[in-house]
Amino acid sequence: MTPIAYVTAEWPQAAVSSLADLGYQARTGGWGQTGQVLTADRLAAEAAGASVLVVEVERVDAGLLAALPDLRVVCTARGTPTNVDVAACTDRNLPVLSAPGRNADSVADFVIGVLICGLRRIPAAERHLRDVGWLVGDDLPYLHFRGPELAGRTLGLIGYGAIGRRVAARARDGFGMRVIHHDPFRLAEPDGTGVTLPTLLATADVVSLHCTRSPETANLIDAAALALMKPGSYLINTAGGGMVDEAALLAAVESGALAGAALDVFGTEPLPPDSPLLRCDRLLLTPHLAGAATDVAAHHAELICADLARLAQGRRPVHCVNVDELWSTGSRPGPRD
Questions:
Q1: Where does the record place a coiled coil (predicted)?
Q2: At the top level of CATH, which class does the domain 4-102+294-327 belong to?
Q3: Looking at residues 271-296, what average pLDDT do you find?
Q4: pTM
């Protein structure tokens, strides 16, 4: 009998063929197909008999695992398995595969896009043209909607992992920016761009967050950090809500201490329609879109299928979050164990 892989993640047709090449009958449903998240009971019913479960938004917990006794592998099409109870999977000897870096290029492209749009005030100019007209009062728009070139400016990256490095390459090699970074896990980079956080904030013309959301990074950019930033600098956050004190940021922008900011993530999502952030035209606000490139699904499918192939060959998967716990037992779990 052909083993079943049930997929609720976004999954291109080419990736369905990849699962078939690995010997699976692919069945798809849920969020990736309909945009609607399956309830636990519905997911258990639709994934009944599956050996492999691939989710992106749907949650996997101990109750679901108990309802799916045929499962051999759990996969999440995310960089970190925030929607999967990894401990419960480990208790059942189930590898949990993830897709780190799946949207790294998407986010890096987006950061460069909002950096240019924000510094050059492109969205504000476009809104003015539509809503008001060509002139700003009696002035030419040239006098009101302009900003600096990127070459020679300093970009400070807080976090220097897969996304941060891609942003750095684009900014440095594509636009001639000087790049510095702060990352406590990468203090001794050979390129010599690592600096302390206070130095970064005081030096950078643009500060962009690329750190992991955690208790340590909650409210990382608060009023005190904003006060350290270079006058007239610009802040970008695509990393995670809750890292920036939004009230303090709004005050800094409205006072002129900062030139502006681009926020793709917020402390409360969806952003309430009465949020005071919406009143400030020097804030570029987007609804959590940085990782929304159309190529991302192909990237996470490729990463997951590659690790499923390794498991089928009895090899250690590359992107398995509980690999050390499972392989230390010598059990070599996998899709057909």
A1: none
A2: alpha beta
A3: 97
A4: 0.93
